[in-house]
Amino acid sequence: MNKTPPVRVNARAESWPIAGRFAISRGSKTQAEVVVVEISDGTYTGRGECVPYGRYGERVDGVLADIANIAPAFSGGLDRDGLRSAMPAGAARNALDCALWDLEAKRSGKPVFALAGLPPPRPLLTAYTISLAAPVDMARAAQAALQYPLLKVKLGADGDPARIAAVRKATPTAELIVDANEGWTAANIAGNFAACAAARVTLIEQPLPADDDALLKTIARPVPLCADESVHGIGSLAALAGKYDLVNIKLDKTGGLTEALVIADAASAMGFGLMTGSMVGTSLAMAPAMLLAQNARVVDLDGPLLLTKDRDNGLRYEGGMIFPPEPSLWG
Fold first, then answer.
1. Looking at the DSSP assignment, which residues form a beta bridge with residue 270?
2. Which bin fits 313, alpha (ψ -120 to 50), beta or left (φ > 0)?
3. Domain ranges of the chain
């Protein structure tokens, strides 16, 4: 019997400068703080990347500590299925899960899509993000992004009708989707919905706080809605019925590609459309999500486009199209 060689787990923090400033309703940042995991058996090394997110109580140092605590278990045989029960969903598990997929691909000589029983990935259209700012600044940013046919407009503050109107005027032909990041209220949601409808917005993400979105069951919804902060694991899906039309599945929320594929199947079976999103990270974080995104109605994997520089052997982007990763990057 062939014995699986012992593995070594290494994790490190990296900081990648953002081109300008990335701003949403909860704040802004100029650096993408990521954690990279490498799992090596001495011959092959698999890599994964996660982005700790303060919205869910995550910090870089905490994620590194969580990875260090579980690292010895991999030499004892912990695998991807075991990881799902050994660790809660979140950024740390995502990086480990994706590194295990990459390691398995390198050991077997088979791409991850084949190991997962999926068809070969094809190029996809990704949204490009316009950060929250004053209307004139958002219009200027939209004009600078005319090569992208799908724009994701960050809203979630007072004056949003003026913002979305300014972006639409600056980009008459682009498809617009909106992400309010839980920033709207019962008092302004109807007006914001109306402004989005007037601007021909085709999708609105998470208009209300995740713990206060019951109003969505009773209010008129002129634009399809997508749950983001309101959806995590399979157990969160049932409560979304009647409030949302799509769900945004992100690997950092689900705790990796393994769980994300399961949730995507469950959401589809329940009648939800799929969106595949991400935090702001490098191509190493986007590459596994490319497999998840193959069946998504909306793809938002523009993280590397928002950085001043991507990592070596990064994903190829052309005019809003994102191409599958090369094995030198992942999978």
1. none
2. left
3. 8-109, 124-322
| Phi–psi pair at 17, nearest 5 degrees | -60, 135
Q: Which secondary-structure segment (H or E) carries 212?
A: none
**Residue ranges of the chain with per-residue pLDDT less than 70:** 1-5
What are the catalytic residues? Answer: 154, 250
Strand boundaries in the chain, DSSP class E = 8-24, 27-40, 45-50, 124-125, 128-130, 150-154, 175-179, 201-205, 225-227, 246-249, 273-276, 298-299, 317-318, 321-322
Hunting for tokens 């899906």 — which residue is that?
237
pLDDT in tens, 116-126: 999 999 999 99
Q: So what's the architecture of 8-109 in CATH?
A: 2-Layer Sandwich (3.30)
Q: What is the DSSP string of 281-292?
A: --HHHHHHHHHH
For domain 124-322, the CATH superfamily is Enolase-like C-terminal domain (3.20.20.120)
Q: Which two tokens stand for residue 58?
A: 């995550």
Diameter of the chain by CA atoms?
A: 67
Distance (Å, whole) CA 260 – CA 266? 10
- Tokens linked to 111: 């791409």
Amino acid 155: pLDDT: 98
> How many angstroms separate the CA atoms of 208 and 181, rounded?
8
Picking from 243, 259, 214, 284, the residue whose alpha carbon sits closest to that of residue 93 is 259
The amino acid occupying position 153 is V
Phi/psi at 8 (nearest 5 deg)? -120, 135
pLDDT for 1 equals 34
